[in-house]
Structures are given as C-alpha cells and as structure tokens.
Amino acid sequence: MIALVTGGAGFIGSHLCEMLLEQGHTVRALDNFSTGRRANVAHLINHPKFTLYEGDIRDPETLVTPFQGVEWVFHLAGLADIVPSVENPTTYFEVNVHGTLNVLEFARRNQAKRLVYAASSSSYGIPELYPTPEESPIQPQYPYALTKYMGEELVLHWANVYKMPNLSLRMFNVYGPRSRTTGAYGAVFGVFLAQRLNNKPYTVVGDGQQSRDFTYVTDVCAAFYAAAQSTWVGEAFNVGSGGHQTINRLVELLGGEITYIPKRPGEPDCTFADTRKIHAKLNWQAQVSFEQGVANMLACIDDWRDAPVWEPASIATATASWFKHLGTP
C-alpha cells in the first residue's frame, strides 16, 4: 500500500512510519514540524520507500502532492495539550476540526481505501463507568478534548454519508520513546524524566493515587495497522493497555523523591479503557507491560536532557488558566 501518515514526524506518527515500512509499504509522512521533529524521522530519510513532506493540514495547497494515489491515510496530525487549548481555542478548532475536514476531503477525492483517525479518550471527560466502553457519554472538559471529538464526528459522518472506509481510534495515555520533550507543561512521563535527570523531586498531582491507562506506543501503532487491514467502516474503538497504573506506581518504578502539587479541575481520577470491542473486531490487544515500557523509557532518558525542568512554582504559573477556566465557579 501507499500510506500517508499526517503528523508523521511526531511522537506516534514516527513510530507508525517505521512499522509501515517494516511491513513493506510505501510511506509518506506529512508534518508542519510545529510539534513533530525532523530528528524523529531522520533515520528514515534515505529509505527508498519513505518520503517526507512539509505541509500544514490547514493549507489545502500543501496536501495535493502527498495525497496523490494514496491508499491508506492515517490522520495523526493535530494539536494536543490542555492549557494551550484553553488559551487558544480558535487555533485548536482550525487545526483539529477544519484541518481534519481538509484531510477527509483529500482522501475522498483520491479514493483512499482506508482512513484511520487518531481520536482521544479525553473526549469521555470524567467517565461514569470503568473500564470505559465506547458507548459512554461524551463530555469533554476542555477545548482540546472537544475539538478531537468534533474531528471524530466528521470522520464517522463522512463514512456514513460518503461511504468512506473510515475508522476512529480513541487512544488512552500513549507513552514511549520520542514523546514530546519541549513545549507546554503536559504529559507526566516527559515531566518526570526531565526531573529525574536533574535530580529534582517528581511533582505528583494530588495524592498520586490517580491512575492512568498507560498504553505503549508500539502497541498503539499495531492498533492503527490492524484498523487499516480490517473491513469495518464507521466505527470508533478504544485503544488501551488492558489495565491502569497509579502515578505512585510510576514513581516507584522510576525511583526518586516526591513533592505534591494541587489536584487540577477537569481531570478524572482514573482512565481505564474497555478494550473488548477492539479485541473482538480487530483482534488487537496490547502486548507491552507497564514495567517493560517504563524500562524502555529509562533506556532512552537522555532524550529529555534538554527538556524543561518543571517545579511547583513554574507549574502553578503554567496552569493558572487551567484553574481559572476549568475550576468550579
């Protein structure tokens, strides 16, 4: 297949490009490098079946060439992080919603045989049921979650109206090598690894008993590949590890001191995917244990050597708008 990965130089996208190439496919990666890094795919540049395109999904002109003759489209390009979405909701709408519309239309015009969308489990908000099934209420707590869900609605609507072979994968707490090292305060692994390198205590939110469905990046890529090979259309699937781990357990595996910071509004105490549907329909389940995944992260900890080192005071400043807009009135 000729496969296009939007956001192909990003964290998950670069791993997906690797997997597709290993399976013998021709791979095109499209990225504007706003969050993705060229270094993530530098080792692929000379591969005879790999092409890197610089382009922005908001700009249709940059999409023409990458989409020509494409058969599989993996749409991972988008903006993440909570605080920037609260501060810049218009930009998030332009990228995650209108950008997704552009990708859908180019895939439709080029008669792509499959489009798989990277959705977010954050759309469930604070779930009412654990493990959380796909039928759970959608109740996004901030613009990032909302715009990712709006993108998913477009993907599934285009499957229904235009009979496009689209699927959506709702990812839970993806982690692994090449996860973002710079930018806004965000994912716990990047924060903790930089703190460990600099002998700083881990800034644990609340009492550390909150748990997350940490899902290793290669497992996530395998889910995308299974979705591309399937015959299902117009479905949304959870992609999770099959369990959930407390932040205290993560600290135990990393080793080090702790300092506690205030619990934040709009965050669930637990994320835990019900993965029965994806196992039954796509024959997929996660393979990498949490302990192995953390060991893999520690083996490449030097990747976070230049990452920002967050401390309670800088986190309080960075998350001020979070508390202002998402806190109880």
Automatic annotation (TrEMBL):
- Metabolic or biological pathway: Bacterial outer membrane biogenesis; LPS O-antigen biosynthesis
> What highest taxon heads this organism's lineage?
Bacteria
The organism's lineage? Answer: Bacteria, Pseudomonadati, Pseudomonadota, Magnetococcia, Magnetococcales
Q: Which residues form a coiled coil?
A: none
Q: Could you tell me which species this protein originates from?
A: Magnetococcus marinus (strain ATCC BAA-1437 / JCM 17883 / MC-1)
List the protein's name. NAD-dependent epimerase/dehydratase
Segments spanning the bilayer are: none
Question: Pfam families in the record, alphabetically?
Answer: Epimerase (PF01370)
Q: Locate the NAD-dependent epimerase/dehydratase domain: which residues?
A: 3-240
User: What family is reported?
Assistant: Belongs to the NAD(P)-dependent epimerase/dehydratase family.
> Which N-terminal residues, if any, form the signal peptide?
none
